[in-house]
Amino acid sequence: MKKLEHVNYRGFILPVVVGLILWLMTPIKPAAVPVAGWHMFALFVGTIIACITRPLPIGGVSIVAFALTVLTKTVPMDKAIVGFGNASIWMIAMAFFIARGFIKTGLGRRIALNFVKTFGKRTLGLAYSLIGVDLILAPATPSNTARAGGVLYPIIKSLSQSFGSEPKNGTQRKIGSFLIFAEYHGDMITAAMFMTAMAANPLVQTLAKGSGVDITWGGWFLAALVPGIISLIVVPWLIYKMYPPEIKETPNAKQWAEDQLSEMGPMSMAEKIMAVIFVLALILWMTGSFIGIDATLAAFIALALLLLTGVLSWQDVLQESGAWNTLTWFSVLVMMAGSLTSLGFIPWLSKAISSSLHGMNWVLVLIILIVFYFYSHYLFASSTAHVTAMYSALLAVAISANVPPMLAALLLGFFGNLMASTTHYASGPAPVLFGSGYVPQSKWWSLNFVLGIFYLVVWIGIGSLWMKLIGMW
Fold first, then answer.
1. Membrane spanning segments where (predicted)?
2. 287-312 in b/e burial notation, b at 16+ Cβ within 10 A?
């Protein structure tokens, strides 16, 4: 007789209790918050706690949350299902499929071996080299998901596998865990350094202009240059110390990589086609804003070509369970987070913060606003949604408290990226890299918490002083 699948029913206790308590507090909720908004808050908090206690895998938790959201009439079905059509989420799924092409053809392994041959003396050096690729691509790639998920993740996965580091074998800590997490933060930092490196950054420019602050591409880059370089240098080293790889030095890596490349022989036709499609996808990601092809469409084009040329089969696509799992749970969380705004909870929260800061010293106001902005990201599954919901309100509060407008506009803009140092659903690259299975959720959250404090200190402290030095405020 087939046994039932294991369900950790104890894991449901805390999220259900907390969710019910918040739900039952509806009669005493703030008057400005609509009932549906408060109910969405209760459901969302319960869901996030369930993602931590893990009564079911996160995909299963999200399905339960989706059912409850619609069943309680908090969000009607036609609006709830919209999350599954989110372009950014499909971009994430496409990244998984492109990664499979790299692995299946062996091209990813070949690229990885060349990286090992060139930078393979130390694991930390490998991390810096991969982040360097991200830095080079960032100014011309307005999708941090495309960079981390579509470009670097396949290389890191193949590189890790070349060292025998795979989650399914329990060997993820050899090298893969460190490289995955280092790239996540490298991608986050480069996204903060360029106005064109993340989808929400141009939105920041537009919203700031509405408040009378004109941010230029050069001004953004110059302001972010010093805190960005400091972060790019220090953060990989901090991760190396806090979450060290088991393989730290590989003195024979160059010869080993050369031997492996020799065994592989010349590039196969499948590898060559994969390489051409990869370069085409990269070009489309970099030029999409000029030719009218967004990152998600570019990824769909790449997958279509992989199928048409026979590099991938439809069966390969169906078997990429990580992509379908991520598509499910991330869609639900994005829907719930978006509903917090549309149903009035987030607007109320922003106004409440505004009124409570009246009369304070502007330096203290700026710090409080950024800290609030940063940690409120635990309620969001999209940086773009968070920026849309809060940026204008918080900038208006800052300016009214006599914070120098350009300083406030830029720091809030930078932290629209850096606040991804929170959860495994914080931004587009997060579910791609977390979904690889190399870094457990507990480590993802705890390491992000420590590094989040680092970003707050460096970007507010050193960043503000640097901007003062170059005359931006």
1. 7-25, 31-51, 58-75, 81-103, 178-200, 220-240, 273-291, 297-314, 326-350, 362-381, 393-415, 444-467
2. ebbeeebbbbbbbbbbbebbbeeebb
Pairwise CA distance, residues 394 & 401, whole Å: 11
Alpha-carbon gap, residue 25 to 18, rounded angstroms: 11
Opening angle at CA 423, ends 204 and 169, nearest 5: 135
d(CA 195, CA 221): 7
Alpha-carbon span 441 to 423, nearest angstrom = 8
The helices-and-strands tally (H runs, E runs) of the chain is 24, 0
Read off φ and ψ for residue 278, nearest 5 degrees.
Answer: -60, -45
Report residue 439 as tokens: 């870094």
Q: Please answer whether residues 180 and 129 qualify as being in contact, where contact means their C-beta atoms are separated by less than 8 angstroms.
A: no
Name the strand (E) or helix (H) holding 110: helix 107-119
Nearest partner of 191 among 466, 378, 419, 434, judged by Cα: 419
Distance of alpha carbon 285 from alpha carbon 139, whole angstroms? 11
Quick one: which of 284, 264, 277, 332 has its CA closest to 97? 277
Q: At what angle do helices 217-242 and 441-455 cross, to 10 degrees?
A: 130
Q: How many CB atoms lie within 10 A of CB 251?
A: 10
Handedness of CA 443, 450, 329, 13 (dihedral sign): positive
For the chain, give every domain's residue range: 1-83, 85-312+344-472
Helices 58-71 and 35-53 cross at an angle (nearest 10°) of 160
Q: Which residues are bridge partners to 122 per DSSP?
A: 249
Could you tell me if 123 and 250 are in contact, meaning their C-beta atoms sit under 8 angstroms apart? yes
Other beta carbons within 10 angstroms of residue 241's beta carbon come to: 9
Please state, in angstroms and rounded to a whole number, the distance separating the CA atoms of residues 294 and 285: 7
CA 173 to chain centroid:
21
Q: What is the pLDDT along the chain (473 residues), one digit of tens a residue?
A: 678 888 899 999 999 999 999 999 999 999 889 999 999 999 988 988 887 788 998 889 989 999 999 999 999 999 999 878 877 678 777 877 887 888 788 887 787 677 778 877 888 988 998 888 888 878 866 678 878 887 788 888 888 887 888 998 899 999 999 999 999 999 999 999 988 888 788 778 888 887 889 888 888 999 999 999 999 999 999 999 999 999 888 666 677 778 888 988 999 999 999 989 988 887 887 777 678 887 778 889 989 999 999 999 999 999 888 788 878 887 888 788 778 878 888 788 777 777 777 778 999 999 999 999 999 998 887 787 788 778 888 888 888 888 999 999 999 999 999 999 999 988 888 988 998 899 999 999 999 999 999 999 999 999 999 999 999 99
